[in-house]
Amino acid sequence: MNFFVDNLPYILAGISVGGQYALIAIGYTMVYGILRLINFAHGDMFMMAGLVMVYLAADLPMQIAIPVVIVFTVVLGCMIEKVAYKPLRSAPRMSIMISAIGVSYLLQNAALYLTGGLAKTYPAIPWLAKTVEIFGAHTKMVTIVTPILTLVLVIGLVLLIKFTKIGMAMRAVSRDFETSQLMGIDINRVITVTFIIGSFLAAVGSVLYFTNYTAVLPTSGSMPGLKAFVAAVFGGIGSIPGAVIGAFIIGICENIIKGLGWTTFSNAFTFVLLIIILMVKPTGLFGEKNIDKV
Amino acid sequence: MLEIRNLNVHYGGIHALRGINLEVDDGKIISLIGANGAGKSTTLKSVMGLVPKSAGSVVWNGRDITRLETKEIVKAGIALCPEGRKVFPDLTVAENLTIGAYLRKDKEEIKKDRDWVYELFPRMKEREWQLAGTLSGGEQQMLAVGRALMTKPKLLMLDEPSLGLAPLVIKDIFSIIRQIKEAGVNVLLIEQNAKAALEISDFAYVMETGTITMSGPGRELLSDDRVKKAYLGE
Ligand SMILES: Nc1ncnc2c1ncn2[C@@H]1O[C@H](COP(=O)(O)OP(=O)(O)OP(=O)(O)O)[C@@H](O)[C@H]1O
Ligand SMILES: [Mg+2]
What we know:
heterodimer, A: mainly alpha, 13 helices, 4% strand, B: alpha/beta, 6-stranded mixed β-sheet, 4-stranded antiparallel β-sheet, 10 strands, 26% strand, globular, binds adenosine-5'-triphosphate, binds magnesium ion
C-alpha cells in the first residue's frame, strides 16, 4: 500500500502515457493485421500531427485547430497509403517495408525543413493542461482524460469491428485478400478505412501526448512510435485488445521505474521487454492463433 | 451463358493458359477435369478477375467482363467457391454466410437465401454460432458452398468441392450440386474425381497443360478410351 501511495504520481503518469501509446499502437496493429506491414511512418505521422497543431494554434482557436489537425492527419495517413504502399501491393513484403522506412525519413526531413530543427512549443490546451488534484497528487487534467478517452475509443472500435459490415469486411480481409474479393469486398476501401482509423487515433493521441511533453521536434515521433510498436508486439501484433493492454503495461512500468529513481533505464526497459517477448513468446499475449484447417 | 474465348494467362514466365475456349450454357452442369497443374483453378480465377489475363476475352450473357474488377463480376452474378474451401476461420458460420451477401441490399431475399442454404445444409443451421475455423473439413466445404450461394449467383463455379472428403460426404455434395442446378443456377465444376463429375455433367472439358484437349457430353467422355486411361484409372 505504501508503495502505491508513494508512487501514485508515477502510476497516474504511467496510465496516462500508456493510453497515449495505446492510441498509437492501434494504428500499428491494425495496419499489420490487414497488410502484414509494419508502418514505420506511423510514429512520424504522429509527430506531424503535433507539428501542424503548433502552426495552426498560432492563428486558430482550439475548437477549430483540433478538428483540423485530426482531418489533416487522416488525409496524410491515407495519402501515404495511396502513394507509398498501394503501388507495391503485389510486391514482396520487404519492398513495402523499405518504402515505409523511406516515408518515415521523408516526414522527419520535411519536419526538419519546416522547423529548422528547433523545438516548437506545443500550445497549451487550457482545459487539458489545467492542474487537478486526485488522491492528494497533483497532475494535469490530461492525465485523467487520457485513459478514459482511450477506453471509450477502444470500446467503440471493438464494437465497430465486431458488429458492423465494414468491421466484418476488415476481419475477412485480414485473413484472406483473394477470398474476400470473391465476396465482392473492395480491398482498397477496407485498407483506406483501416488507415483512417489508425491516423485518427494517432492524431487524438498526439494532442494528449504533446500536452504533457510541451515540445515538438522532428524526431518526437520516434520514441513514442517505437514504444507503441513494442506494445503492439507485446500484446500480439494484429490484436487490438493486446496492443491496448501492452501499451498500458509499458506506460505504467516505465513510470514506476522512473519513480524508483532509475530514469536512465526507463527506455531501455521497453526494449529489453521486446527482446524477451521475441525470445519467449514471439506471438505476444494475444497473438494470432492459427486455426485454419487445410 | 458464359463464353471464354482464347484465354491466355502468364504467371511471370510460365504460360499457364494457352488459349482456352469454353462455354457454360444455361441450365447445365459443365465440368472441367484434368491433371494437377493443368490450369483448371487458373481458368476460374481469371474469369473472376483475380489473375490477370494476357489475351482473350470472357463474355457473360452478351456482356464483355474481361477487364472488370472482381467486385463487379460478383455483382453480375458469377461466384467462385475456391479450392481448399477458404472459409473465414475467425468468423462464425452465420457471419460467413452474411459476408457472402456483402454486396446485396435486398434484406428479404437475403433471408430467403439463408434459409435455403440452411435447408441444403441443415448442419450449418445447428452450427450457426460456431467459429468456421473449428468446423470439420466437410462442414467447411458445405459452408464455402453456402457462402458462395449467398452472393445469389446465376453461375456458380466450384473448384474441387470434394477435395479431401469421405466418400459419403462426397455423395452429399454431388447431390446438392444437382439441387443447386435445379434451383436455376448454372454450375461449372472442377473435379479430380473425374468419374463422379462426368456422371453428373451435361457437358465436360478435359484440360492438359494449359489447353483443352477434349470436350463432349459427360456420358460420352466416360466411355472414351483416352479419358478412361488417363483419368478414370481403367
Ligand atoms: N500464383 C502463381 N504463380 C506462379 N505460378 C502459378 C501460380 N498459380 C498457379 N501457377 C502455375 O500454373 C499452373 C496451373 O496451376 P493451377 O492451379 O491452375 O492448376 P490446377 O489445374 O488447378 O491444378 P490442381 O488440380 O492441382 O489444383 C501450374 O503449373 C502452377 O504451378
Ligand atoms: Mg486447382
